[in-house]
Fold this sequence. Notes:
Blueprint: E1 5-11, E2 14-19, E3 24-27, H1 42-64, E4 69-79, H2 82-85, E5 102-111, H3 117-129, H4 132-138
Antiparallel strand pairs: 1-2, 2-3, 4-5
Helix pairs in contact: 1-3, 1-4
Amino acid sequence: MDAPATARWTGGTKVTSTHENGTQFATDLPRAIGGEDSAVTPGWLLRAGLASCVATRIAMAAAVEEIELSEVEVVATSRSDVRGLLEMVDADGAEVSAGPSDVQLHVKIAASDGTPAERLRSLVERCNRCSPVSCAVQELTPIELRVEVV
């Protein structure tokens, strides 16, 4: 089992999430949609998790393959329609998804040991395919929802 993430509402649109090791972080929404813009958004955390997971996987694989990396930077971007978050519908009455419509990863990689560019490209592509967060975003991962009313 993966470590659970526990999120507790702290008022307004603010939430504090806690890892079982005690690490905590806060999220909030932008003022334009009712938040105070006091912390990063949950969507940004998804992109940060995706970028950091792919970067970590690249570093792991490079170490195994004895590639001496000098730089790895992964930027995750996406486009979302805020109408989905607000439970709005499209002009034709169709439900608007709250999730991103697309996600892009831009990876900058360099090796100080003269590793050929094609080998680095291949490394990045392989690592993206076996990054747990990347797989969760790309593949249909069912969510079992359990609700406890107290």
